Amino acid sequence: MAARGHVQDPNDRRLRPIYDYLDNGNNKMAIQQADKLLKKHKDLHCAKVLKAIGLQRTGKQDEAYALAQEVAALEPTDDNSLQALTILYREMHRPELVTKLYEAAVKKVPNSEEYHSHLFMAYARVGEYKKMQQAGMALYKIVPKNPYYFWSVMSLIMQSISAQDENLSKTMFLPLAERMVEKMVKEDKIEAEAEVELYYMILERLEKYKEALDVVRGKLGEKLTSELQSRENKCMAMYKKLCRWPECNALSRRLLLKNSDDWQFYITYFDSVFQLIDESWTPPPEEEHSLEGEVHYSIEQAVKFIEERITEESKSSRPLRGPYLAKLELIRRLRYRGCNDEYKLGDPEELMFQYFRKFGDKPCCFTDLKVFVDLLPSSQYTKFISQLLAVIPLSAAAEGELALPSDIKALQQHLCVVQLSRLLGIYHAMEKKQKLAAVRELMLRYRHGLEFGKSCLKTELQFSDYYCLLAVHLLLDLWLEGEETAVWQCLTLLEEGLSHSPSNAQFKLLLIRIYCRLALMQSTYSTTPSGG
Fold first, then answer.
1. Would you name any one GO CC term (predicted)?
2. DSSP state, 231?
């Protein structure tokens, strides 16, 4: 048990066998050993608590609680008893009792840093934010360390979050937290990144976006180093709140020059470009465009910038998806504004085809492309799918047999196409016989794909699981259309899939869904009057 490492009193040697029994799960022996010890040392409180833990773990909760309360009533202050009681109350799911325990300990030993910090954490577990604030300040007065001061600040923030009255949150809790942090700023006592993060959080919640931006851009912002681009992300968020689109644009453009694969910056870049166009923004004469540097404020500049990112990507040693997806996103936005044809960015169908050729073997390819399928005319769906299938290296063992992938990359490509077919409604348009034939084909592909996953752990998913899932969804469609036997096929396929991928959550959720539907139907049938 964790408590053993902190035992410092002379009773350590006597208590050690009980700890060992409890650690090894031998609770009955722990109780017997505690009883032996208590016969010789009746006032050894920790032994009583350890016995109570043994009783709790053997199902004798009432006896354990009575014994624990007997010790707690004595208001112990030794580490062994306090930590053992904490463990016991946690196992009883009674965290509120821990607060009373340490409240008593703090009264008896008012200058104990350890007991005050345990009291603070006990309040945190039960959500007593007001008492957390008081405990944090009491601790800071005893030991003036920054973390303890900011525990109190964080407690105020938690009070503001949990307050039912939002007005109270913004007029009392957050302003008080702000003043507390400002005091530390004026005294130049801010030491850690977390303290700056708290200050930023307070200003953001108070909607003091300019002040928050000044903090991030200033000297305090230099402490924001633990996360990649943490400072830039916070600046970007504040620029958006303040509608400072030139700075938004310049910063996102600069960050994309560093990393042209970060999708969030593409979205911000496009948002800002079109905002500036709508506002007819022009750069100030003989001055910098913005605090963050050069600004793009026309469609021509945006088109050129994206084309440059694609050119740069072609020179990269690692293929980057961002620039290609950004081009499709720009086409979508230009189409929405009714001016796509003017800029000759290319045919979306061809661009998506080229994207598939480059990244089709990645599991993310489907989720990337599904966002842009609305750029395709519905009359081109079948042609598009056929075009994708034509470039996948599939091979048949003999003429007339099903062409199957020879490696995992080809399997991933084919899976992507199958999922796109489902998304575009190609399966939905099939007749019943065609759907059943598609189910048989998908299951053949699923079972063939299991060969590639023979070395997978039980916690890993099989590469071909999506074939099975798609087959099940087709059968569910048939069931909802009135084909009663389809549901039993669903269950059979899902149980088969689960036997190969025990950790597949989608298999489990579908099974739960179907079993619940069947149970509901059975219940409905059983309660229907015979004359009905």
1. NatB complex
2. H
Residue 155 to residue 133: CA distance in whole angstroms: 5
Assess contact for 475 and 490: CB atoms under 8 A: yes
3-state DSSP assignment of residue 110:
coil
The per-residue pLDDT for range 80-97, each reduced to its tens digit, is 899 999 999 999 999 999
Tell me the C-alpha distance between 192 and 54, whole Å: 43
Q: How does pLDDT run across 110-144, given as a tens digit for each residue?
A: 999 999 999 999 999 999 999 999 999 999 999 99
Q: Would you put residue 344 in left (φ > 0), alpha (ψ -120 to 50) or beta?
A: left
Angle (CA) 527 530 532, round 5°: 85
CA atoms of 452 and 461, how far apart (whole Å): 11
* Residue with tokens 């994309």, as numbered in its chain: 256
Token couple for 74: 């004595």
Q: Identify whether the C-beta of residue 181 lies closer than 8 Å to the C-beta of residue 199.
A: yes
pTM: 0.82
The token duo for 10 is 């002379």
- Cβ atoms 416, 356 nearer than 8 A: yes
Please state, in angstroms and rounded to a whole number, the distance separating the CA atoms of residues 306 and 136.
52
